[in-house]
Automatic annotation (TrEMBL):
Its EC number is 6.3.4.5. Residues 177-393 form the Arginosuccinate synthase C-terminal domain. GO terms for cellular component: cytoplasm. Homotetramer. Its main location: cytoplasm. It is found in: Cytoplasm. The keyword ATP-binding applies. This is Argininosuccinate synthase.
Length: 407
């Protein structure tokens, strides 16, 4: 399928491994490398510097795709609508970014006439699966290669290669952690965190301040339209701006720190620290608005769908048929998820204390215990007789057959 003169498109981060990978791919395959860096709001180094580094390391073409708005609107917002938390905790930070990066890699491959896409993941994680399954789900004609995994390269080998070839990359400064970050959050693993008994130290955190010594409480009103935050304190915001502002404000209060052991797709349990202040605060607000705007059974059923949606996204199925079907269900549920949520951000928690919606199903006159009550309480008696009928018949049978638990 692949001609010898085919180029290889590499997902380039600017770090040691992917910089070295440019040369390795050239040596192993005899093909030219096009480096693509995708901006998903990871911050840090200037992306123009990263682009130039790719060229200096031997890439024939290098470019940076600004995918920040696209990532926020088309990847983080669906996760918000799904209240997506893998294993009840992890807001899918890295799992959400891989499909959008893969999309830009496929686009670049088409543009530069490549049929092979490369990434710098190891063979032990979820991300290799997410890149490759995403790529072949969008472009079944493409091949994937992974030099770090397939050549079993270690960090020492990378450093030696970079020094031998004089690559313009820092090889001495070794961060003890493996970090992946974007606008939805930050994931930190390895180093002393691999001992499950070791508590994270202060230097692990960047997006959040210590919640033990918080500043004064910060009250915020988030306005949603069909499940998406559209205003903060009355000011219109894009999805990207909403996440950024909540990262700043909830981060200052130490909200969204997560320390967990999770189950990877490849069967390994791993310890991860996450910080996702904006994501956690927005999910809390979104859930609160759903509690007043979703009908009971729809809401209950959605919880099951949310769990499966999160598992699918975690497990590399972003572009799968089932994920698309669940998206359609979730989208339908968001039709009336519009209104205002007021919350107080303080000391590590985002606490909802007010809700308002034109589409609310909360009926004051039905709920009130004061005057104005419009609920006909006499109807409840007959309702309970019928509702409890099956259990009552079963209990009577148990007594008759001597099987009663004897209450
Ligand atoms: N375990 C998380 C996931 O699979 C995060 C992995 C990100 N990588 C990292 N170097 N921390 O989504």
């Amino acid at each position: 399928m692949t001609a010898k003169n085919d180029r290889v498109v590499l997902a380039y981060s600017g770090g040691l491994d992917t910089s070295v990978a440019i040369g390795w791919i050239g040596e192993q395959t005899g093909r030219e490398v096009v480096a693509v860096a995708v901006d998903v709001g990871q911050g840090g180094e200037d992306l123009e510097v990263i682009r130039q580094r790719a060229l200096d390391c031997g890439a024939v073409e290098a470019y940076v795709a600004d995918a920040r708005d696209e990532f926020a609107s088309e990847y983080c917002m669906p996760a918000l609508k799904a209240n997506a938390l893998y294993e009840g905790k992890y807001p899918l930070v890295s799992a959400l970014s891989r499909p959008v990066i893969a999309k830009h890699l496929v686009r670049a491959a088409r543009e530069f006439g490549a049929h092979t896409v490369a990434h710098g993941c190891t063979g032990k994680g979820n991300d290799q699966v997410r890149f490759e399954v995403s790529i072949t789900s969008m472009a079944p004609d493409m091949d994937c290669i992974s030099p770090i995994r397939d050549l079993s390269l270690t960090r020492d080998v990378s450093i030696a290669y970079a020094e031998k070839h004089n690559l313009p990359i820092e090889t001495t400064k070794h961060n003890p952690f493996s970090i992946d970050q974007n606008v939805w959050g930050r994931a930190i693993e390895t180093g002393f965190l691999e001992d499950l008994w070791n508590a994270p130290t202060k230097d692990v955190y960047v997006y959040t301040d210590d919640p033990t010594y918080p500043p004064l409480p910060d009250e915020v009103v988030i306005t949603f339209d069909k499940g998406i935050p559209v205003k903060i304190d009355g000011r219109p915001v894009t999805p990207l701006e909403a996440i950024q502002e909540m990262n700043r404000r909830a981060g200052a209060q130490g909200i969204g720190r997560i320390d967990m052991v999770e189950d990877r797709l490849v069967g390994i349990k791993s310890r991860e620290i996450y910080e996702a202040p904006g994501a956690i605060a927005l999910i809390e607000a979104h859930q609160a608005l759903e509690s007043v705007t979703l009908e009971r059974m729809q809401r209950r059923y959605k919880r099951g769908v949310e769990q499966i949606w999160g598992e699918l996204v975690y497990e590399a199925q972003w572009y799968s048929p089932l994920k698309k079907s669940l998206d359609a269900f979730i989208e339908d549920t968001q039709k009336f998820v519009s209104g205002d949520i007021r919350m107080v951000l303080h000391g590590g928690r985002a606490t909802v204390n007010g809700r308002k919606s034109d589409a609310s199903l909360y009926d004051f006159n039905l709920a009130t215990y004061d005057s104005g009550d419009s609920f006909d309480q006499s109807s409840s008696r007959g309702f309970i007789d019928i509702y409890g009928l099956q259990s009552k018949l079963a209990a009577a049978r148990d007594v008759r057959l001597g099987e009663s638990s004897g209450y």
